[in-house]
Design goal:
The complex is a heterodimer of chains A (158) and B (191). Chain A has 158 residues and is of the alpha/beta class. Helices cover 28% and strands 26% of the residues of chain A. Chain B has a domain at 72-177. Chain B contains 6 helices and 7 strands. The chains are: A alpha/beta (158), B alpha/beta (191).
Amino acid sequence: MAGAAPQEHTGKGGKKSLDVDFNLVPFIDLLSCCLCFLLITAVWTQIAGLQVASSGGPPDPQQKQENTIDVKLMLTEKGYSLSMAGAQIDIPKQNGPQGAAYDRKTLDEKLKTLKASLPEQSAITVQPEDAVAYSDLVEAVDACMGQQLRNVTVAPMN
Amino acid sequence: MAIVSPGKRPGIRIQGSKVQSKKFGRGKKGAYASIMLTSLIDVMTILVMFLLMNFSANGEVLYMTKDIKLPDAFHGAQLERAPVVSVSADAVTFDGKMLLQTSDLEKGDVLNVPELEDALRDEKRRYEQIHANDPDHPFKGLVNVQADKHIPFKVIKRVMFACNQSGFGNINFAALARSVSEAKTVTASNN
């Protein structure tokens, strides 16, 4: 065992060995304890939270009034529909390997353009249809968060 | 033919080898077995470093069940500890207690969910009683919604309405945290 046994001193005035021996037993003990503790307390799935406001809820007192426009992102069975200041941009679904899916890439680009033209804008309302799946809603909210539109309100379409 | 003692006999080539000929030695074996600790310590150190990098002081906020498959999110924040409304394909539960069937929420056009609203109001009352003399922890109305990825918005809408009616206006949608580099990998593989 490397280093576990101390080197014997013979008392003779011979040349000292250049090798240094470490006592590895306490080191292994510490590592074993750390390993046990970390294995027991480990969180294997990292969960993220996307904070949204529900329409009709009380306004956040910390949220300051902004000079921004009303931006709405609608999720329909045809795709995304981004509307702001009277203009509307439709982003239809794309055919993929698992059927028609929402075009996240184009949505990211449109939101990026919006954020570039309105840097102070941080509020957006996401309006999904009743049949829209939770994963598609989360994807849309996530896309908004990714473009620094942090004040997301989720409201029903009708 | 020469008479030899029974047992294994090495060949001429092996007899001449310093390493191989030791197998045929008749010497007494040592009483102590030595263990190579270097590789063991290497493995343990790598494991400890990996686990330390993944260590989270918050612990598990949500109880993961096989009925609920969460969607992915790339820009989510860390989930705070708050009451959890779980929506699976079968049932709606509040803090692990089953309240109603999910199929009930898919029927009808009304928005209110009395069972969930009552449970949330009780939770709010309990929190306010516990923190009555604690101004550092005011009621923030935070609730975590943990729903399966295939649940339609019609159900989520009613859950959100119930939360709103009970004073829980800050809703956190739970999702699996993914990094942006993973998103690029997925996009590249799809293309």
